[in-house]
Amino acid sequence: MADALVHVDDVTKKYTTRGGSVAVLDHIDLEVPKGDFMALMGPSGSGKTTLLNLIGGLDRPTSGRVTAIGQEISRLSSRELAAWRSQHVGFIFQFYNLMPVLSAAQNVELPLLLTRMNKAERRRQVEVALGVVGLSDRLKHKPSELSGGQQQRVAIARALVIDPELILADEPTGDLDAVSARDVLELMTRLNEEFGKTILMVTHDPHSAEVAKRIIHLDKGVLSQEVRV
Amino acid sequence: MKFFGYLRANLGRNRVRTTLTIIAIAIAMFLFCFLEATLSALQTGIDSSSDRRLIVRNRVSLVQPLPIAYRSKIQSVPGVAENGTAFGIWFGATWEQDRDYFFAQYGVNKDTYFQINPEIQVPKEQLERFYADRRGAIIGRDLADKLAKKIGDPIVLLGSIYPGTWEFTVCGIFEGKDSSVPEDVMYFDYDYADESRDESSQGLVGFYTLQLADGANPAQVAEAVDATFENDAYQTKTETERAFRMGFFSMWGNVTLLLRFVGAAVVFTILLVAANTMMMSVRERTNEIGTLKTLGFQNRTIVSLMLFEALLIALIGGVLGVGLAIVMLNDFSMPGGLTIPPVPPLSILLALGITALTGLVSGTGPAIMASRLSVVAAHGRI
Ligand SMILES: Nc1ncnc2c1ncn2[C@@H]1O[C@H](COP(=O)(O)OP(=O)(O)OP(=O)(O)O)[C@@H](O)[C@H]1O
Ligand SMILES: [Mg+2]
After folding, report:
1. How many other CB atoms are there within 10 angstroms of residue A19's CB atom?
2. Is the pLDDT of residue B267 over 70?
């Protein structure tokens, strides 16, 4: 598929431990079209995070190819991968992973420190991103002074601020109450529909998965089914 | 410098720990400067001493006296310059107005003392005045400033070795030939002190200084002097002024080496503490470093940030410690007499160098640890 943003092509990922070598992902093929919002479900330990890491260029496959945003990232060095991530991918985690010592604005600014933007430009971008997630009035708050839902929205702003083509979210609502979770999912939908971001979201929760355009299941290292909602 | 906000926030992460580390480094560097200044004071005393002058003292110990009658015999030893002997006593009195303020006083012979010790520079007319006044005193510029005395002023001392109340008149103010000559010293007429004692203890001096004739061999002359008094009641020990001073400072063993060893041990300990603190703070941040890497921060950026943070902590501490030493040792006398001079500029540079090195070394381990951390592994540890 020519307009796919992500191609996962016959990818195997093995972890070698003392007990021997285990294939967490076993000859996986997956395509994520541009502009898609895909939910990835599966039991714990099925390899969802592993797959997300491969697509986001955080890790390299044992065999096979991963191409994302026109780049065969499975062939890049870790240095090139870091540069590539900083320009093209936004990450959202279950536990937000904000820097506790930095304010919301400083947290969102972090990825921009790797760009050539000057201070004023960075400041403007940060304000825009925090505005999108509805936290314009919390710029100076530390993570500890924000609710879980607000912290996750700061994390979403941080993912958004570099204007990435691809957003990868690993159980973004896994640690949130129902109301906050709904806010975050609404935000994800907006990012997809309004800003045209391609989103791949891991979730355990079938309700959360329903906001996605597609749901795929990963089980025992194999992508077993694909459901169109 | 766009990372400054991040760095500053990190310093505030654990304020108590950061503050303690900074204080530890500050104390280490303060001690280092203090030691260096003390050592330089000792060294200056040795540097200013001459190889062309010999000191003759009682063989038994420095506090035992020698008879004044030895002077003519010493003068007649071959190799001693013409009019080349002087002598003095250690007076050891305290200042009436402030008994805790210590300075050295020597009762010296008037006729040759200042000729044989030309590094003590006294204007000619002041010297004349001193010669004419039995109670005259010549004091160094530093001492004059500290006691707030000018020529003509009285100085009253309370004796200990020489009991009683002693009145002097300032007749001259000397300046050292260079900074190595101590200027917080007072000289006065030996006779004034000696005549006040009862007859049995009169006629004793603490030490002789003798000037070598041109071309005379110091070792040979020293040997000849000691041989002269071999069979007398008071035997002598003669050595060059330099050897005498070095021996004086090694009375407690090799002080210099000991002090340096203690200094090195202190600095090394602080370094370990600082390194350990940095390690702890990186271990706590495993997850955050993983996040930075996920966001695309390169290893070298993370390593630089770690090193810079360690360097910053060390330098804040170092500058505080060195600064304190500079301010405090500006005009500082130890109880007991030794005046600690200002910290030598070279020592300041050395202290800051050691501080920077401490920072870099203590930051290196954590930086390597942080750079080795794989993104995926770091995230497993939430
Ligand atoms: N660094 C590693 N070394 C060895 N084994 C690993 C490593 N990372 C993951 N695994 C194993 O790979 C398997 C898949 O892990 P992964 O984290 O991808 O699962 P997951 O589907 O995200 O699970 P969960 O829903 O619990 O997050 C697990 O069995 C895990 O033990
Ligand atoms: Mg997972």
Report:
1. 6
2. yes
**Total residues belonging to chain B:** 382
d(CA B368, CA B300): 10
The predicted-structure confidence for A121-167, as pLDDT tens digits, reads as follows 999 999 999 999 999 999 999 999 999 999 999 999 999 999 999 99
Q: What is the pLDDT of residues B146-157, one digit of tens each?
A: 999 999 999 999
Q: What is the distance of C-alpha B117 from the center of its chain?
A: 22
Burial of A206 (0-12, 13-18, 19+ CB in 10 A): exposed
A99: phi then psi, degrees, rounded to nearest 5? -80, 115
Q: What is the dihedral of CA B16, B18, B22, B25, to 10 degrees?
A: 110
In the reported structure, the alpha carbon of residue A171 is separated from the centroid of ligand 2 by a whole-number distance in angstroms of: 8
Q: Cα–Cα distance between B211 and B137 in angstroms, integer?
A: 23
Inter-chain touch A93–B379, beta carbons under 8 Å: yes
Residue with CA closest to ligand 1 atom 31: A45
Ligand that comes closest to the CA of residue B380: 1
Task: Determine the 3-state secondary structure of A47 from DSSP.
Answer: coil
Q: DSSP string spanning B345-365?
A: HHHHHHHHHHHHHHHHHHHHH
Residue tagged 């691809």 (tokens): A166
Give the other-Cβ count within 10 Å of B323's Cβ.
15
- Reduced DSSP (H G I as helix, E B as strand, rest coil) percent helix, strand, coil of chain B, to 5: 50, 20, 30
Atom of ligand 1 nearest to the CA of B374: 1
The helix/strand count (H/E) of chain B reads as: 14, 15
B260 in contact with A at a CB cutoff of 8 Å?
Answer: no
Average pLDDT over residues B138-161: 92
Spatial neighbors of B23 by CB under 8 A, at least 6 apart, are: B317
pLDDT in tens, B198-213: 887 788 999 999 999 9
| ipTM of the complex in this document | 0.91
What is d(CA B228, CA B197) in angstroms, rounded to the nearest whole number?
A: 28
> What is the distance, to the nearest Å, from the Cα of residue B303 to the centroid of all Cα atoms in its chain?
41
The residue ranges of every structural domain in chain B are: 4-45+254-380, 65-233
Mean pLDDT throughout B178-204?
A: 86
Question: CB-CB: which of A95, A111, A119 is closest to B296?
Answer: A111
pTM of the model: 0.70
Instruction: Please state the rounded mean pLDDT for residues B3-10.
Output: 83
How far apart, in whole angstroms, are the C-alpha atoms of residue A167 and residue A160? Answer: 8
